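Budget justification aside, the reviewers requested a transparent look at the raw inputs and outputs of the sequence design task funded under Objective 1. We therefore reproduce one unedited record. The lines immediately below are the structure tokens for a 200-residue chain.
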């Protein structure tokens, strides 16, 4: 005949104070000796254990040696995982340095660059842009900027910096200047018009 399982009578915890989350705070010695009879959600006085389903769960707390050990093991495991997982960039870099199977005297990178150069010579615009950008000649995108509400001193500084940059870019020191005294101004692309609204 099978033995009938009896339910454990839960302890009355209404006499104990509650923490800020409404959990009854049970003295450590009572918690340790009777955690099986505690209702779920009771916390011990040391605030590192909480009753759950006839047992208890250990909580990570700031100055607890067990918590430090768990955090340390978790950190070590995460670090090992990152070390084990190679970055995609590292894989690509290694592949680029390997000898090419069709041209063993060249690396994969050499073959890739040669094929891009050939495509650019054959008129492929995207390949030509890639080659141009790779050698550092990508044109700078200059957006139109409106300057309003600046003091005369700020406008003078902006004018000076803008004209110096334009001169350095054009090589003559005098390209595409604008007048700070003209009021609110718009700095446009060097090749485009300078649009200056009328003063209010």
């Amino acid at each position: 005949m099978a033995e009938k399982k009896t339910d454990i009578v839960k302890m009355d915890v209404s006499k104990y104070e509650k923490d800020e989350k409404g959990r009854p705070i049970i003295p450590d010695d009572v918690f340790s000796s009777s955690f099986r009879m505690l209702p779920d959600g009771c916390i011990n006085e040391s605030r590192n254990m909480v009753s759950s389903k006839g047992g208890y769960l250990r909580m990570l707390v700031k100055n607890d040696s067990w918590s430090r050990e768990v955090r340390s093991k978790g950190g070590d495991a995460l670090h090992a995982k990152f070390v084990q997982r190679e970055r995609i960039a590292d894989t690509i870099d290694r592949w680029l340095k390997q000898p090419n199977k069709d041209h063993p005297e060249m690396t994969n990178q050499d073959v890739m660059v040669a094929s891009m150069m050939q495509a650019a010579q054959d008129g492929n615009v995207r390949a030509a842009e890639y080659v141009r950008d790779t050698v550092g000649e990508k044109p700078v995108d200059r957006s139109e900027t409106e300057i309003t509400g600046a003091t005369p001193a700020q406008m003078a500084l902006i004018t000076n910096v803008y004209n110096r940059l334009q001169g350095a870019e054009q090589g003559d020191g005098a390209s595409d200047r604008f007048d700070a005294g003209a009021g609110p101004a718009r700095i446009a692309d060097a090749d485009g018009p300078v649009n200056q609204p009328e003063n209010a």
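Confidence is low (pLDDT under 50) at residues 183-200. The two ends are 102 Å apart (CA to CA). Computational costs for records of this kind are itemized in the attached budget.
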